Amino acid sequence: MSAPPPRVTHGPGEPYVGTSVPRVEDQRLLDGRGRFLADLAAGALSVVFLRSTEAHAVIESIDTTRATDMPGVVGVYTGNDLPLARDYIGSLHTPDPGFVAATGFRMPEQRLAILPVDRVHYVGQPVVALVASDRYLGEDALEAVDITYRPLPAVLDPSASLAPDAAPIHPHLPDNEAGRIEVEFGDDVAADAVAVTVEGTYRIGRHGAVPLEGRGVLARVDGQRVSVWTSTQIPHLVRQGICEATGWSVDAVRVVVPDVGGGFGTKANVYAEEVVVPVLARLTGHDLVWVEDRQEHLVGSAQGRDQVHRTRLSVDREGRVLRWEDDFLLDIGAGGLWVAGVVANTAIHLLGPYRIPRVRLRGRAAFTNKTITAQYRGAGRPEACFALERSLDDAAGRLGITPVEIRRRNLLTAADLPYAQPLPYRDGVPIVYDGGDYLRCLDSVLELLPAETVERLAAEHPDLTIGHGVGCYIEATGRGSFESGRVRLTSTGGFEVASGAASAGQAHETVFAQVAADGLGCSLELVTVRRSDTDLVRHGVGTFASRSAVLAGSAIRRAAEQLLDQATGRAAQLLGVSPDLVKSTASGFAAADGSSEWEISWADLATACAPGGAQEQLGPLDVVEYFHPETVTWTMGAHAAVVGVHRGTGAVSVLSYAVAHEGGVEINPQVVEGQVIGGVAQGIGGALLEQFRYSPTGQPTSTTLAEYLLPGTCDVPDVQVRHLGVATPCNPLGVRGAGESGTIAVSATVAGAVEDALHGLVRVSETPIRTGPLRAAAEQIRREGQ
Amino acid sequence: MKPAPFAYLRARSVAEALEMLGASAHRDADAHTKVLAGGQSLLTLMNLRLARPDQLVDIGGLMELSRTFEDTDSVVLGALVRHRTLETDPKLGKRLPLVAAAAGQIGHVAIRNRGTLGGSLSHADPAAELPLAMLVHEAVIHVESATSGRRTIRAEDFVESIFTTTMQADELLTWVTVPSARPGQGWGFVEFAPRIGDYAQAGAACLVTVAPDGSVAAIRAGLLAAADRPLVVSEPGDEVSGIPTHETWERLAAHWTRNLEPLTDDPDHTRHLCRAALSQALADAYRRARTDQEEAA
């Protein structure tokens, strides 16, 4: 089933879904009228956090006396001063028992203290919270807090952390294993069938989201309730985290999401600061705000990636994959509330978009004394993709076929799909790739960016040696368990839409309005999408894992349809005609019985529902729906890159990039394209520049943006995107997730292109790609060329 | 990221700025006063609390130090001339094309709009562009003090080590005299950074003087980010005989970088980058000198 081709403009009577209507939030966000967390801070006192300066240490004493006497200080609080029911934040994801049984998945309970009083586990961990009249005085006073640490050896290497004799970092646990998984299927492969076996060790650096806006929390006490504004992707999970830690009733906590300047997974996490600020607001009675600064962000916000894969791939004479083995290791730092998700994601996505008959995977996550982790855009998928795609390139080279050819021989085609894997997904449902034709993506991306592009670009860049690379990925999107959607008729005849899937800038206000308008059959202008607020929808999960369009979109669609259904009945009643004569129009309803015609607008209907109206007793038109998908739906894509390696320095420039991806129905094609291009930019950052580095004693050394290098506009070329839509039956919209797609295959694709540029003289096996070895290879090529 | 407390003084004249610096040095030898000009390095370091001056003397309002004067053989630049002016002013660019190119490599436009020549030289970051350009140009730096008066310091003697100059605490950098480009002289400036606008991993600047017959009469070349200060690496004894080729520059660059001990994680890689930057800068300078000669002829 092919999705309809995208339309650029919206014609009368046509659905809005599938149209690139302009993003309604852009005007506000781009001209400076967005209201971000820090814009709400007026009148609030400042909370500042004293963060651990030690990677691993026993806290021998904390003396806050001097700080308490400093100018402007309202109070200084340690973990002992917080009235908490539980002093840690619980895991945010537990896999289905069916998945656990099939994969031997295990993880211990993490109990990283909200404000530790006895032991610190990473530099940047909040230890003391201080309330001051402003941030300047607050930071001055932090210097007067006296903490005595007794340093412990910092564990920074995940292999050493998992060694049998390693001391546990977390005293309540027997060892440092944060999670494990094993996947094995297929029959043994006959030795004589194997033509080539390649082994490799692939390292994916410690990267992070580093959104434009950091985190921030504002709390305001109002009688029995506390309202919390936080820059998050998951307001309902934050509410849950606050309630579990404090023992407060869910009814006593409201979490509101203001405009959010990017999340990418680092804000799909519940943080100590999100608990401490409302607790202190209660304790002090003041409105309190904490706005994370960039230095705090780079040591205190959740990071990602940081995996090592030890792989073994066997192919036959034709390059067909026979056997794929990977033993991988994740460094989750001092903790990660999504460890189950990232471990399972890595394992599942190691299966790739290929026919692989025999698979043996083992993964382990290790605690170390580094900053905490969460799910960073891709969350295991880019890492898995890097290991598998790099291994395929290696095998192709050994067989003497091209990287394109080995993929062509292994990719699943229309004849193979839908394709069942002998493994359940994390939700316990057996994995079935619900795609159309994955080979078509490879063909398509090569049309966009053929290997011959190298010659043209070589002529334009004599100082560079040029290469072409490809990479393919698969992505499970739209994971459950559910998401909420609410549609309500306002008193003036418009509609308000709300969902638990909070926007971090992804155009929810536009695309959810498109979905609702189609469900209501009304004009788009009538629909307003509200920012997420737990008072607007009582239940919800959040925005991450490429799920919002799929789940929230579907919930909103159903809520809109139900509201239309209810409204049709009420319109018929008001008009005194049979409901089957009533048709919806862009502005309301019309009915005709042959001799007479009637019309009633949404505003008329709203008036009828209001106090004093004819249908007052029926109550407002207000529908909440929860969409529970049966399981995930799969997106696949192929990337191609042309890169240049500088002959004198080894520096890599990505000169041209293309993505062909098999998504589903596109609610707004331009928004999808933006997501893909943004993902590629973030992928280029990880491939070439970004790395959270640590000194041998565990001191982070990437603590400013002069050290943690993000890709700028000059580092990201124009990206061509081709969408090959295949609607999925998994949800009423036929959509597949696209939020992470763009980033997954970038490191693998760029690495392949770099090797091609250097005639295979180097093997690229880590990100970010180190330029030193490339320079040596480029020099060798130059010498031999002379 | 808020600075530690500090006192703030804004000078209305050079004389007043000197008095402020002198008074603070006199009052308390341990008191730490910093001059604030464009603030592009100092304010960042203060916000990180890596710099904790007790007092700032803001000279940003001293318009007289924003001026430039053109002499016959040199250009005199005020301490407050902005990087962006050095980069884009057509008259300065004609007299000091190497300085213009170096200034254009500093950070991003917003930084260049605020950052000043005097600030960059006083900050003495070994990876900075303008200290190297001044070194290669054999510029003379003028400093002034309320008590000890005026003196000049050769660019070669100005930087003591990383972030440290030979200026006294009560001295203010006021003017810089830069010998301007001469006929037959070509310039080269090449910098490698992970991204445009980043601190340089390596960089080279040079002035190559070419005789009418195409032979090389003189070379002055230096490197940034290769030590604790900008370095002159050209050695007058290493004459280039005949018409230079690509290999000439490669050989010279290799020779002049052979003893470098860069203070980086990977000194060998940095040494290679220095060599590549220098070789390209030399080749560029020679090519520009020849092009100018051909156009003049």
Automatic annotation (TrEMBL), chain B:
The keyword Manganese does not apply. PROSITE patterns: FAD_PCMH. Keywords: FAD, Flavoprotein, Oxidoreductase. Pfam families: FAD_binding_5 (PF00941). The keyword Flavoprotein applies. It comes from the Bacteria. Residues 1-183 form the FAD-binding PCMH-type domain. InterPro entries: CO_DH_flav_C, CO_DH_flav_C_dom_sf, Diverse_Substr_Oxidored, FAD-bd_PCMH, FAD-bd_PCMH-like_sf, FAD-bd_PCMH_sub1, FAD-bd_PCMH_sub2, Mopterin_DH_FAD-bd. GO terms for molecular function: FAD binding; oxidoreductase activity. Gene3D superfamilies: 3.30.465.10, CO dehydrogenase flavoprotein, C-terminal domain, Uridine Diphospho-n-acetylenolpyruvylglucosamine Reductase, domain 2. This is Carbon monoxide dehydrogenase. It comes from Intrasporangium chromatireducens Q5-1.
